[in-house]
Amino acid sequence: MKREIIITSDGSSTIHLPEWDEQYHSKHGAIQEAKHVFIKSGLSLFSNKKISILEIGFGTGLNSFITFLEAPRFNLEIEYVGIEAYPVATEEIEKLNYVIELNANNFENIFTQMHQQQWELKNEITTNFTLTKRKQFFNEINDKNIFDLIYFDAFGARVQPELWTEDIFKIMFNALKSGGVLVTYSAKGSVRRAMQSVGFTVERLPGPPGKREMLRATKL
Question: Which site in 80, 92, 173, 219 is 20 to 30 Å from 200, CA atoms measured?
């Protein structure tokens, strides 16, 4: 499938798949979306503790990198697990401008390290942030009561509806600890109903630029 690096509305880059007319991040702003959906609506719920995060769709590494940069603001120690069945190629990663757009030149080596580290191994990025990348399909996840927070960042239901089903959200529900939270950019009614059917309590929240709403689901 053809892949192109494009610049989104906030100046940050993403990968575009013309055949699907789908992007790894919002064309209205990759960084803006990540900060709004995953940091403001997810990570900011936690402070002064150690937490575990599961990312569904590691992709470009943008969400993990922003989480690393934001963690000190909330005084968090983070164990981060990123799931990705189809890793992004090195030559594509090298064309992404996240380090510059995030004014994170001092941490360029961290972004590189996140992508160069071996899969399936826990890597200590710093004393307060570990990253484990797992190459697997989402339906193969079998973690139970492990995570405090899930970033659900799969391709949209329009192109991959099988990733937004009750079966998948049951896996997510099981992976979360009691009180755990899942956040996603999607606000589709079918997605909300699938979440509710497996036991989640679901909120509609204001969406990132270009989207009216998003969803946050809690395992009570």
Answer: 80
| Apex 25 CA angle, 121 and 155, nearest 5 | 75
Instruction: Provide Rg for the chain, Cα atoms.
Output: 16
Residues 6+ apart with CB under 8 A from 187: 204, 207, 211, 212, 213, 214, 215
The structural domains of the chain, ordered by start, are 31-218 (3.40.50.150)
Task: List all residues 6 or more positions away from 174 whose beta carbon is below 8 Å from its beta carbon.
Answer: 143, 144, 145
Please tell me the distance from the alpha carbon of residue 71 to that of residue 189, in angstroms, as a whole number. Answer: 32
- With b for 16 or more beta-carbon neighbours within 10 A and e for fewer, the 3-40 pattern comes to eeeeebebebbbbbeeeeeebbbbbbbbbbbbbbbbbb
Distance CA 176, CA 21 (A): 32
- The b/e string for 138-151 (b: 16+ C-beta within 10 A; e otherwise) is beebebeeebbbbb
Task: Return per-residue pLDDT of the chain as tens, 220 residues.
Answer: 899 999 999 999 999 999 999 999 999 999 999 999 999 999 999 999 999 999 999 999 999 999 999 999 999 999 999 999 999 999 999 999 999 999 999 999 999 999 999 999 999 999 999 999 999 999 999 999 999 999 999 999 999 999 999 999 999 999 999 999 999 999 999 999 999 999 999 999 999 999 999 999 999 9
Phi-psi region of 48 (alpha: psi -120 to 50; beta: other; left: phi over 0): left
